[in-house]
């Protein structure tokens, strides 16, 4: 997939944040993009040489949506970024409903899409990228079940890769674990909550985090990942303000 021209990519969760950055960067690299989101989103008109961006306003967690969109668009790649904004409170201030929000959204979406990708299946040489979170490694005590849900995304992406190999499918699955991205709807509240918990200003807290992840950098990193030789793709990567780093 070194040349993305004409290779349709579905980006699930493309209306905002990292997903929007990914959709925009893929279009700029020449890929026709299907931008999937629950709310309507507008994108700039593609420049010369860019791929078109088509929007699909649907609930990606609906059990029928993945099959419908994969059949309709026949993608060469699927990037799953969609997820809920966690309730930023310590454990004792959560309810089960707030604690479980990312299980009911993020994990549900990934389950339906990974299942359908294997059942269809995608064409040989296809790529699947699932966004997890750096919280899947270090935990996240102020976000309820968020870290556990994101860890499960990493597991089930690995399960999907194993099933693809067992069935002789030439599909490459990988997980990306982004660290703090303060400009997003998930990262912004997290930065405020953890800065307050640490007794630091937001600027002081972010200075300790290191180079900050932006939607633009996330988009560039995913373009690079999709253009890389499949044999070099690792099962998982941490993504921060420096770029992608393979997980050990």
Helix content: 40-55%
State mean pLDDT (0 to 100 scale).
95
Instruction: For the largest sheet, list the strands in their spatial order.
Output: 3-2-1-4-5-6-7-8
What is the H/E string? EHEEHEHHEHHEHHHEE
What is the CATH superfamily?
A: NAD(P)-binding Rossmann-like Domain
Number of distinct helices: 9
Cα-based radius of gyration, to the nearest Å: 17 Å
Low-confidence stretches: none
Per CATH, the class reads: Alpha Beta
Characterize the largest beta sheet: strand count, sense, and whether it forms a barrel.
Answer: 8 strands, mixed
First and last CA, distance: 25 Å
InterPro entries: KR_dom (IPR057326), NAD(P)-bd_dom_sf (IPR036291), SDR_fam (IPR002347)
Keywords: Oxidoreductase
GO molecular function: oxidoreductase activity
Family: Belongs to the short-chain dehydrogenases/reductases (SDR) family.
Question: TL;DR of this structure?
Answer:
By secondary structure, the protein is α/β, with parallel strands linked by helices.
